[in-house]
# Entry
Amino acid sequence: MKIAHAEVLVTSPGRNFVTLKLVTEDGLVGYGDGTLNGRELAVVAYLEEHVLPLLTGRNAHAIEDTWQYLYRGAYWRRGPVTMAAIAAVDVALWDLKAKAAGMPLYELLGGESRRGALAYGHASGNDLPQLFDSIREHLDLGYRAVRIQTGVPGLGQIYGVAGGDGDRYDYEPARRSAVALEEVWDTRAYLRHVPTVFEAVRHEFGPELPLLHDGHHRMTPNQAAALGRALEPYDLFWLEDCTPAENPEALRRVRSQTTTPLAVGEVFNSVFDYQTLITEQLIDYVRSAVTHTGGITALRKIMDFAAVYQIRSGFHGPTDISPVGMAAALHLDIALHNFGIQEYMRHSPATLEVFRTSYTFVDGLLHPGSTPGLGVEVDEQASRAFPYSPAYLPVNRLTDGTVHDW
Ligand code: GCO
Ligand code: MG
# Structure
């Protein structure tokens, strides 16, 4: 099964997506997601200029060899652009292999370990009434776990809070911008406010509902430890990215101070980013996306390593992971023994018009479906109606103007 043709598809149905398409000599088509939100065209250039010329004529079945060839062969290893490009190739090859076998991909990863993958959605509101409405809306949609983000008194638009006017999510798609928008942030105000929100949510919705929260890399280890402790009475499923990702050692301090479960890794791109966190059991959940971690081949190895230390998966699944990347995560979710939860933000109707998916969401559980391969086909004709449009992520500043982590 040789690769006859490789090409990169860029489309923007609601937001930008980068998809690698591989075609074999006998006409099988495989897709891989290489979307890196806000820096999309860097991955396109990496693939088109440096990877595609190496793919034609290669044995499409040789997934591990191709992975090592692209990773070690570049000499310059890791980094989000490189690993998103390798992921795109890796996932497209797994899609091809499973299509050639006539099986859904999870069968090649060991088969089903569960009926479906518990998913969490993004509930948010500027204030408590809006937040409660959003939680109810998620429960009505079938979600059995929700992430909670709210506005903070005194601050304007902040990460994770849908802006109103029918927006489903923050920056999806209403405030995407060709220049980076700026938000204002105050960590002390946030720390005072968040426990009151969880108190109110538990009071209204009871003790059962799994609740999650994302700190988006903004706290110091001490602040994160204090927040983790303050949230203990509300029994969080996890507190995510409490400190900046570059310094895994910071989590030793947090870990020693609180039993609130910790989730980390959406901006990581290799197993080495996790080495300290896993071996010292400083985290409870691996947050990586297939798309940003070198694909199924690499993320599977991270999860097997994590399993030894009782660490489970909680893969990244915002709408900037394309339906191809989401499907790849779902096949792993179904097959892995140490699955934890799957983030699931619903893609827009425009996105789903271009990417035809076979995954399902029933009673709060996601399933990748039984179509051979990943179960996602790209409608190239439909994609042409949505040309690339530059869109930056926001930049965060403290109240005195200092740039902070967004
Ligand atoms: C999450 C993430 C996202 C990221 C986004 C950046 O937990 O889903 O934090 O909201 O901010 O993926 O591109
Ligand atoms: Mg996050």
